[in-house]
Specification:
By secondary structure, the chain is mostly beta strands. It has one helix at 116-119, and strands at residues 3-13, 19-43, 51-62, 68-72, 81-97, 99-109.
Length: 120
């Protein structure tokens, strides 16, 4: 492993209103495993439903020819783990209602990574 980056974050909403927040992480081009973990979830009011969703919503990579690609995902169905070569930025989004949520964004850097779609 060539290193890692850990980014603890929290989001809160004390009502049934959905609060959305995003985090942009930029970095020099690196082979990266991106992982999200929910560390804590506290519901404020028992009489209304609560929601907490953490998702990777965008990943920018540099192609071998120097061009860039941006993979975008919907927050409701976005992945919690992505493996990509030559990552230069990641956007993580949280949506929360009637809850306090604490999450971790982990970026692991490796000399070589093989995305799942290439391992088949």
């Amino acid at each position: 492993m060539d290193g890692m980056h850990v980014e603890p974050r929290s989001a809160t909403s004390d009502s049934d209103k959905v609060v959305t927040s995003s985090l942009l992480i930029t970095q020099p081009r690196k082979n990266t495993i991106i992982e999200l973990c929910m560390a804590r979830w506290v519901t404020y009011r028992a009489d209304i439903s609560s929601r907490a969703n953490l998702a990777i919503t965008a990943v920018r990579i540099v192609n071998p020819d120097g061009t860039t690609d941006l993979d975008e995902f919907d927050v409701d169905s976005g992945p919690n783990v992505i493996v990509r070569e030559n990552v230069t930025s990641v956007v993580v989004t949280a949506q929360v209602s009637n809850a306090y949520v604490r999450g971790l964004v982990n970026l692991f850097f490796w000399p070589v990574v093989v995305p799942a779609e290439e391992r088949a």
